[in-house]
Amino acid sequence: MFKAILLNKSAGGFEAKLTELDDGLLPEGDVTVRVDYSTVNYKDGLAIADKSPVVRKWPMVPGIDLAGTVESSDASEFAVGSRVVLNGWGVGETHWGGLAQKARLKSSWLIPLPGSMTTRQAMSIGTAGYTAMLCVLALEKHGITPEQGEILVTGAAGGVGSFAVALLAARGFKVVASTRRLTEESYLKGLGATELIDAATLAVQGKPLGRERWAGRSIQWAVIRWPMRVRQ
User: Fold this and answer.
1) How far is CA 107 from CA 84, 118, 125, 126, 132, in A?
2) Structural domains in the chain?
């Protein structure tokens, strides 16, 4: 038996509850993971509150990421006792996810956790950090460099935005942080932002990649749109 948050929807309505489940109910997969940590992402919040059609198969255990230890395995690359991390792949949507004490998953979805990192540290970074890194890599792929000028991060005080500020600053970018929470100035500057601007000043629709004039200077900016399901 293991504890899990279970979501169910039927003609009688929607239900979200913390319950105990038998291991035999776990979905198909070749690796069973004892979950140490998961994070509550925006999509998880929507799923648990039944505010958006995130869940595509009922009943469902939410949680789009997890880090833990392999409890049993039919996959040669993941021995019992291995520590692993997972982001995306439809868990919490079409396959039971990480907001449980156990998860049975496909080995192709898992990434070995580096020995220098704990499972708690992995989920402190979580899907927010993973998404921010994907965005930074995409910017680099498009040839965006620190020498081209300041770079703007919108939603900077949020999870993805915070990681983006820190990652870009570490790569030598001068980061202008856009947020509606201007009280977070010391927090964002501590992450590496050189300046804050009110997000309300950027409420004009723009192109996915471009440059804007703001306060008399040119700022490079980017909007990265990712599919709902993030895959490795």
Assistant:
1) 10, 20, 21, 19, 24
2) 2-117 (3.90.180.10), 127-222 (3.40.50.720)
